[in-house]
Amino acid sequence: MIDPVPEGYMRDGRGALVPIARVKPIDMARNDLVLELFAKARHVSAEARDLKCRAFADIEAFVSLSAEQYEVRIGGKKGNVSLVSYDGRFKVTRQVQPISRVDERIHAAKALIDECILEWSEGSDASLVTLVNQAFQVDKQGNFSVGRLMMLRKANIDHPKWKRAMEAIADSIDTTQTASYVRFYERIGDTDKWRMIPLDIAAA
């Protein structure tokens, strides 16, 4: 926890207390501007979170209301939904996408594949070796690409150890988590194209 700054002082970037009288006017003006903008950014961020929560709740309520016409109840919040205004100018979409991750069993799969390639030695297909190396590359966060791993399962290889490796890959993939998005679109003139209303300040 940062100690409070005594009256008449400011804390610099190194944590030292500096008397306000010694702070240059341009540094003070810059500091005031940053704090003012940051406070507004926090407010906008909070409003964006509230909008997302309200949008999801309202969309879910409307989906249930629409289903009542057919005397059916719909449970859960899965599935993509698009709602379009009566005049066709505005569209709100709810998108729910699965998040695919791999657990520790992926390392067993890699060990089995390495054993296969070692056993096949010089007879190993160079393109297969390249495919394997690409499949097991990780990003900066150390995560595997599930899509590239699944490409290995398409390889037509009839070998018991390889098949066990493919089973290990399949078992390691976890898709129980989802990411939810709500997006707002406006039709571009009289065309069939839509322009997304940016809620990300960096994309505005």
Task: Give a brief rundown of this model.
By secondary structure, the protein is of the alpha+beta class.
Tell me what you see in this structure.
The protein is α+β, with helices and mostly antiparallel strands and 204 residues long. It has 2 domains: 1-77, no CATH class; 78-204, no CATH class. It has helices spanning 25-67, 105-120, 126-135, 146-152, 160-172, and strands spanning 9-11, 17-19, 81-84, 90-102, 173-187, 194-196. The strands form 2 sheets. Strands 3-4-5-6 form a 4-stranded antiparallel β-sheet. Strands 1-2 form a two-stranded antiparallel ribbon. Helix 2 (105-120) packs antiparallel against helix 5 and helix 3 runs antiparallel to helix 4 (146-152). It is flat, with a radius of gyration of 27 Å. It starts with 8 loop residues before the first strand and ends in an 8-residue tail after the last strand. The relative contact order is 0.12.
Q: How would you state the average pLDDT, rounded?
A: 87
Number of domains: 2
User: What is the subunit organization of this protein?
Assistant: single chain
Q: Calculate Rg over CA atoms.
A: 27 Å
Secondary structural class: alpha+beta
Q: How far is the first residue's CA from the last residue's CA?
A: 35 Å
What is the percent of helical residues? 40-55%
Shape: flat
Read across the widest sheet, the strand sequence of neighbours is 3-4-5-6
Query: Please, how many helices?
Result: 5
Beta-strand content: 15-25%
Tally of strands: 6
* Helix/strand order: EEHEEHHHHEE
Q: List low-pLDDT spans.
A: none
